[in-house]
Structure formats: structure tokens, C-alpha cells
Write a structure and sequence with these properties.
- With 193 residues, this protein is α/β, with parallel strands linked by helices.
- The protein has one domain: Maf protein (Alpha-Beta Complex), CATH 3.90.950.
- The protein has 5 helices and 7 strands.
- Strands 1, 2, 3, 4, 5, 6 and 7 form a 7-stranded mixed β-sheet that branches.
- The longest helix is centred in the last third of the chain and has 17 residues.
- Bound molecules: inosinic acid.
- The site of inosinic acid (IMP) has 16 residues, from strand 3.
Length: 193
Amino acid sequence: MKLIFATNNAHKLSEVEAVLGDGFSLATPRECGITEDIPEEQPTLEGNASQKSHYIYDRTGCDCFADDTGLEVEALGGAPGVHSARYATDGHDFEANNRRLLSELAGCDNRHARFRTVISLIEGGEEHLFEGIVEGRIAESAAGCGGFGYDPLFIPDGFDSTFAEMSAEQKNAISHRGRAVAKLVDYLHNRAK
Ligand code: IMP
């Protein structure tokens, strides 16, 4: 089965490819002639994932999927949420985002937060949504140099270390994206039988 994954991030692509296994081949938008940035202008993760998968489907007619992720901090009413990539600046400045998050939470005892990923799959013209969540808390200061984004500040429940202090395998086994992808893979494997 051939699927387009609405990402040009080679790391994400190989991660999902490895989990999907034989019988599935993934293509990037670029490989299908879509070279422009895919719009994500919606106010929710579901809306953005859906906008991206529909954008690909409308132009190719091929089965495809897209993901969107946000960090939802309880004491900040769910922010930065859908704005996670551009929390501090217009670019994807991870360090500035982390600085802003720490300053917003300064003196705050409620550090509870979660990462949430939504995947929108369009298969045979029908949309299916899959959600992956990991609960945790925001550390008082950054630790670790692995991963990306908010990883140095996020301590998943049941652990004392941040995502940035874990190996990629450890993180993927419990992460929001890992869990959403596992649901997608489950669906596709059962569907293909
Ligand atoms: P995207 O939807 O996967 O592009 O994620 C949006 C933003 O959420 C990223 O720019 C990061 O700031 C943050 N983010 C997403 N996934 C992770 C993660 O696994 N760890 C840390 N930050 C993440």
C-alpha cells in the first residue's frame, strides 16, 4: 500500500516507515510534486492535521496522512498548544520557546502538562483521526541535549528525567507521536488484512 506522509522531515518519515513495516511504502509531498509549504492555519491540532492531509489528497487523489503536535500546559489554559512551534518568535526557535515557557511558569506550583499529537489519515476519500497523549510536568530548568523542541523541559509521568535526557528509543516508546503512530499502524495493519 502506498501512502503520502505530509512531512518533509526525513527523521519523522523513517521513524514511521520503520514501524509500518513491509507492505507499506511512504512518499513525501515533494516526491509527489508538492514543493510549496503546506498550509496549517487552523485553531486546533485536529484542524491543522486535517487541513494538511486534505491539501495533499485534493492535489494527488492518493491515500495520505498528516500530523500536528502541541504542548498543553494546564496552568496556562492549554497554551502554547497549537502555537507550540511559534510560542516566542515567528520562527521555530526552540530555545526562545523554552525560555518563554519557564518565565510564564515562574513561581507556579502547577507544572502539569501534556504533549498531544493528532494524525489525520485520508484513505479512499474518508478521513480517520488518531490521537496520542503523554502526560507529564514542566521542569524548573532545562536538562539534557537529546530530542528537540520542549524536550529539555518535559518530564513524563513515572520518570525523573526529561525527554531530552532519554534515548530516542525510550522517548518513542512512550511519546505522544509514538502513541498516535501506533494507533495509525494498528488501523492500517488490520485494514490491510
Ligand atoms: P509539529 O506539529 O510536529 O511540527 O510540532 C509543533 C511544535 O511542537 C514543534 O515545533 C515543537 O516545538 C513542539 N514539539 C512537537 N513534538 C515535540 C516533541 O516530541 N518534543 C518536544 N517538542 C515537540
